[in-house]
Design brief:
With 295 residues, the protein is mainly α. It folds into two domains: 1-137; 141-295. Helix content is 71%, strand content 3%. The strands form two sheets. A two-stranded parallel ribbon has the order 1-2. The longest helix is centred in the C-terminal third of the chain and has 31 residues, at 246-276.
């Protein structure tokens, strides 16, 4: 539930940015001077205040999650993850407030968007490691014999997607030009396709690897199409528009949402790669004839 709510929060946040509604509510933590009164939900206020309401609900759920993990979880690292999630959502709320108080500075707005994606990945990881399959089904460990190993490839792929989302957020918040985002997209595509091809060729019998690889392949091509659509509607067609066009809002918000799913799936794949694969260990043994033998 929390993972779905966080994805919804990312979508609502993208609606705020895409509709230029970031300063529709000019104060924080109050809303037009009130902590509890709901303002008329018209114009940009419905996006900005709606975003705050969803964020408050996610914060409440995160508190419940942190308390539950601390009381019910026997794994110490899971308890720490619950506390990290709580700290992350608090930091996210503070960054969101600073974007309003400082009049949408690109660096703070980009950090706010990026931390939201990080929180989503953290919640997805917690959801995965508390699932019945993770808890009850022992992992099948496959020994790899090629370099770079799948662990390295999957980690690089996840990191590249994360950096790509940072560049995308910086572009949306007018912090950078479009070119770095486009160049990074090429790198991300190569790394993801390389990782997916390795899994299809060598690890297709492991469902914990094959399923996220299938999802990554679909999400990658959907994301590329949405990215092209966002470019056309925002840069090519909508540059001179007096206000954001509906086509631009839809394409951009969908691009952000699928980007979040792409990042979460790549992180899942990286975690599963560490759990289900093991790089070949070279052991050098002495040989009577003096030759070097690797086992």
């Amino acid at each position: 539930m929390l993972a779905c709510g966080t994805l919804l929060l990312i979508v609502v946040g993208a609606l705020v940015t895409s509709n230029d509604a970031g300063l529709s509510v000019p104060d924080w933590p109050t809303t037009f001077g009130s902590l509890y009164r709901i303002p008329p939900m018209v114009g940009g206020v419905k996006f900005e205040h709606g975003h705050r309401m969803v964020a408050e609900f996610i914060g409440l759920l995160t508190i419940v999650l942190a308390v539950w993990t601390w009381r019910a979880e026997r794994r110490p690292w899971m308890r720490k993850l619950g506390l990290i999630a709580l700290g992350t959502v608090i930091a996210q709320g503070v960054l969101g407030g600073l974007t309003v108080l400082l009049y949408l500075p690109p660096a703070v707005s980009t950090a706010h968007a990026t931390l939201g994606q990080s929180f989503f990945c953290l919640i997805v990881i917690m959801m995965m490691v508390t699932s019945r399959q993770w808890m009850e089904v022992p992992p099948v460990v496959v020994v790899e014999r090629h370099r770079p190993c799948l662990r390295t490839l999957a980690t690089l792929a996840a990191v590249s997607v994360y950096l790509q989302l940072i560049l995308g957020a910086a572009f949306r918040h007018s912090g950078i030009k479009l070119l770095p985002h486009l160049v990074s997209a090429v790198v991300v595509t190569i790394l993801l396709l390389w990782t997916i091809a390795r899994i299809f060729a060598e690890h297709s019998a492991v469902p914990q690897l094959r399923r996220p690889a299938n999802a990554l392949l679909i999400l990658l091509f959907v994301q590329l199409g949405l990215g092209f659509g966002a470019y056309l509607t925002r840069v090519a067609w909508g540059a001179a528009a007096p206000q954001p066009m509906l086509s631009m809002v839809v394409a951009t918000v969908a691009h952000v949402a699928v980007g979040a799913l792409l990042l979460a799936t790549s992180v899942i794949l990286a975690v599963q790669a560490y759990r289900h694969t093991s790089p070949q260990v070279e052991v050098v043994m002495a040989h009577p004839a003096g030759r070097r033998v690797v086992a």
